[in-house]
Write a structure and sequence with these properties.
single chain; 31 strands; elongated; 35% helix; 6-stranded mixed β-sheet
Length: 798
């Protein structure tokens, strides 16, 4: 009997040992995979687009060091737990990546010039076109907003904080091998018969793997996995590395919009200090928060935080780190936090909310345990936030006597791919979570006009066709009258070209163009651009149908994208990182308008910047092609673009009260600040010229009347136009007129009185028709000219 029992015990022991060994190997492989793929960036959560470095980028060495720290790189330390390491050289930085994308060099050297631009980029001694950093974490639980964290090493954690954490969380950390057997025994006895295991007995190593590997459920199965992962991790990393990872990852509550993660971020957000400057009391407060980040928050529960801090101090005295004399003057001190730093500590909070909304709709919650790589460019995001803040600060002085402050929104995207590169939804996320970039619908005003003119061009109307710029009333629906007025009530009281109507944002001309084009045609085209379909009233031409800034940005992208519309995109990939932050565009998307129409609109909007309502942009953003349109309703708008960047800025009041400023005064300054800084930072976002499609020719016209310019014309302008829509009559209104002169491909003969002429116009299209059909006849036009040589009447004589 005894032998049988011994044999049975041996079988159980061998079987259990074999099972335990297989289990350990399984969890060891999980640890190895995490270390191989980057411990910090292989966790579930939201990630920004990886930063791509190129020669010519405006970036100082100090700013790059800050960016590297936030992306999980550490200084002068090679270890497989960090995303990489870096060290300063004589004129630059040397970066060593622990892992990387395909063909990543082992050693990357970056040098800078005197203007704080990257002057040289080499990998393993060979020139590089670009180098991609690891992506930065936006949020780890897909519901909170991350702060601007920077990775710290063990040597950068002050001893007073190390001792505080050890005393209250795991005083035997440097002695055990990942598990505290006595602590586990106490926890098992306390929770005997209860499947929900408490937190007692968890070591720092166990807490780290729980936070970075496991779900928060409290079961024996999860506790077993936690123990096995801890033992495996301890066999692969040093105690210092484990402690540093823990201090970088530990959750320490919420302040405003920011979920505080890591001791360095806690020092900045709660006490407004760098980690190295923490006092004994502040270090003890942070260490005490680990057990209950909300319960012991110094901003929400100061008394509880004080009591917990004192418990930590007493534990430190017990462990011999400090003396009782050091703690006595502190114990009665109240815990006081530094003033909140507004929302400046959070990263793209409105964008994170919008990504989560897209995840819910696209993946129905299935992406919660995966890595989600977004399109946001944190460099551009920072520039966008700063530009809006500067403009809002200026406007606050103007509206200081109003009850409410103006709000703002900015969206920037890649017109080729639709990738959203920056998004700001308001002045302060902590005060208002309404994302005005995606959810606030407001009248776009004159920023809608380019779609009216695009419909007219598609319908065959020429940009040099003329319209009366004078007070008028229009009849629609048979018996209804509409009386638009130009902004400010000014009129030239003469005929102007359609092009001038857009450049100078003339309301009466735009309504005339819309009615001649057809309101239904314009409504259909607006819908194809991705805008809400407007009702068929003449006022639609002036932008009365409400839109969001994001919708408007995507619609304008078609003008620079050859007439093809892109869908705004905020998620680059799920599960695996993209090669770069630039995704692939949908080249198969059907065009909304022809490439030539898109380019003609761009050419007109460039004139808006050069000498129209957005002249301030030309001086502000130099060295790159830009086009754009102001908009003034109750709010102020500006939509503008370079060959590689579209940006919309909106300024207004949430309660829809009148702003009282034009788009040029309210929104344009913020747009200029942002785009100027963006192009300086990354020159590839600009471009000397917009891509000109086939079928476009450049013609010099008389800007006053739209005819082909002569040397006598005082106002000449070079415009882009298709051959079919180009003018083919030379201007004869400036200088002396002979009795009979040749005008382009036509002839002018004296009419029935001294100031009237009959022009026989042989258009290019009729010339081609004559060659194909002998019955084609020329166009006869009667032109009345006053005594000053100005045209006053044009009639078709056919």
């Amino acid at each position: 009997m005894f032998r049988s029992l011994c044999g049975l015990f041996a079988i159980v022991l061998v079987t259990g040992g074999d099972s335990l060994l297989r289990s350990y190997k399984y969890y060891s492989r999980l640890i190895d995979a995490r270390l191989a793929s980057g411990y910090l960036t292989s966790r579930p959560g939201l990630y920004a687009a990886p930063r791509v470095l190129q020669v010519g980028h405006k970036l100082s060495r100090a700013d790059l060091i800050k960016a590297l720290r936030r992306a999980g790189y550490v200084e002068s330390e090679r270890s497989n737990i960090w995303n990489g390491s870096f060290r300063e050289t004589g004129s630059g930085l040397e970066i060593r990546a622990s892992r990387g994308y395909q063909s990543t060099p082992a050693v990357v050297l970056i040098n800078f010039d005197a203007d704080n631009r990257i002057s040289e980029l080499t990998g393993d001694g060979s020139p590089l076109e670009s180098f991609t950093l690891e992506p930065q974490v936006l949020a780890n639980d897909l519901s909170s907003k991350a702060g601007k964290r920077e990775t710290i090493r063990y040597s950068e954690i002050p001893p007073v904080l190390v001792h505080a954490i050890l005393s209250i969380e795991d005083h035997r950390f440097f002695q055990h091998s990942g598990l505290d057997i006595f602590g586990i025994a106490r926890a098992l006895i306390r929770n005997a018969g209860d499947e929900r295991v408490g937190q007692g007995g968890s070591t720092i190593t166990q807490q780290l793997v729980k936070n970075t590997y496991l779900s928060p459920e409290r079961t024996l199965q999860r506790k077993y996995a936690e123990a096995m992962l801890s033992v495996a991790l301890e066999r692969r990393l040093s105690k210092q590395d484990i402690f540093a990872l823990y201090c970088n990852e530990v959750y320490l509550g919420q302040r405003g919009a920011v979920a505080v993660r890591g001791v360095q971020e806690a020092a900045r957000i709660y006490f407004g200090k760098e980690l190295k400057d923490l006092s004994l009391a502040e270090a003890a407060t942070i260490a005490g928060m680990i057990q209950g980040p909300i319960r012991y928050s110094p901003t929400q529960h100061a008394e509880a935080a004080q009591a917990r801090r004192n418990t930590v101090l007493e534990a430190m005295v017990h462990d011999g780190w400090i003396t009782a004399e050091q703690t006595s003057p502190i114990l009665k001190e109240a815990v006081s936090a530094a003033p909140a730093a507004n929302s400046e500590n959070s990263m793209a909070p409105y964008f994170v909310d919008y990504v989560n909304r897209n995840l819910d709709s696209q993946f129905e919650g299935s992406a919660g345990n995966q890595r989600v790589y977004t399109t946001i460019d944190l460099d551009l995001q920072q520039l966008a936030e700063a530009a809006l803040k500067r403009q809002l600060d200026r406007l606050d002085t103007l509206y200081k006597n109003r009850d409410a402050k103006p709000q703002a929104a900015l969206v920037a995207l890649d017109p080729k791919t639709g990738n959203v590169l920056a998004m700001v939804g308001g002045r302060d996320y902590a005060e208002s979570q309404l994302n005005r970039a995606t959810d606030a619908r407001r009248q776009p005003g004159s920023t809608f006009k380019p779609f009216v003119y695009a419909a007219a061009l598609e319908d065959g109307m020429s940009p040099v066709q003329t319209f009366a710029d004078a007070p008028r009333e229009f009849i629609y629906d048979h018996d209804k009258l509409y009386r638009p007025a130009n902004y400010g009530g000014g009129y030239s009281m003469s005929d102007v070209t359609m092009r001038t109507g857009l450049v100078k944002s003339l309301n009466v001309v735009t309504v005339d163009v819309a009615l001649q084009t057809g309101l239904a045609r314009i409504a259909n085209l607006a819908e194809k651009f991705g805008l809400p379909r407007p009702e068929r009233y003449p006022s639609l031409a002036l932008g009365t149908k409400e839109v969001t800034p994001l919708e408007l940005a995507a619609a304008y992208a078609a003008f620079v994208n050859g007439g093809r519309r892109v869908e705004p995109k905020v998620i680059a990939s799920v599960g695996e990182p993209p090669a770069t932050h630039v995704g692939s565009g949908d080249s198969a998307a059907p065009p909304v308008i022809s490439p030539t129409t898109a380019y003609m609109i761009t050419n007109m909007l460039a004139a808006v910047v050069d000498h129209g309502t957005a002249r301030a942009a030309r001086n502000g953003v130099q060295g790159t092609a830009i086009a754009g349109k102001t908009g003034t309703s109750r709010d102020g708008w500006f939509v503008g673009y370079t060959p590689n960047l579209v940006c919309v800025v909106w300024i207004g009041f949430d309660d829809n009260q009148q702003l009282g400023l034009t788009g040029a005064s309210a929104a344009l300054p913020a747009w200029v600040d942002f785009v100027k800084a963006a192009v300086e930072l990354k020159p590839e976002l600009g471009g000397r010229n917009f891509v000109c499609p086939e079928g476009i020719e450049f013609v010099e016209i008389d800007a006053d009347n739209g005819s082909l310019a002569t040397l006598s014309c005082p106002h000449r302008e070079l415009i882009a136009v298709t051959e079919k829509l180009a003018p083919n009559v030379e201007c004869f209104l400036h200088g002396n007129l002979p009795d009979s002169i040749g005008i382009g491909n036509g002839e002018v003969a004296e009419g029935d009185d001294a100031n009237k002429f009959v022009l026989t116009q042989h258009s290019r299209s009729s010339q081609r028709a004559s060659q194909e059909n002998n019955s084609a006849s020329p166009t006869l036009t009667r032109v009345d000219v006053d005594t000053r040589g100005r045209r006053t009447l044009v009639n078709d004589l056919r």
